[in-house]
């Protein structure tokens, strides 16, 4: 397994109902993986940072950013 470069609790938005939820994020290599909690038992999703077309400051929420890929915009 690739070692963790960084890990932290972040708030992410759900794209279906657009509510904000706390998630445990781990950066490994160039992948930002997010889990339900810090036990890292249930992977909720992965964002390949190399596929990002743009990473921009999101002024709608404090300390927020958008990661834009061809597939979608991750908040």
TrEMBL record:
It comes from the Eukaryota. InterPro entries: Actin_motor_Myosin (IPR051724), PH-like_dom_sf (IPR011993), PH_domain (IPR001849). Residues 1-75 form the PH domain. PANTHER family: AGAP003327-PA, MYOSIN X,-LIKE 1. This is PH domain-containing protein. It comes from Xenoophorus captivus.
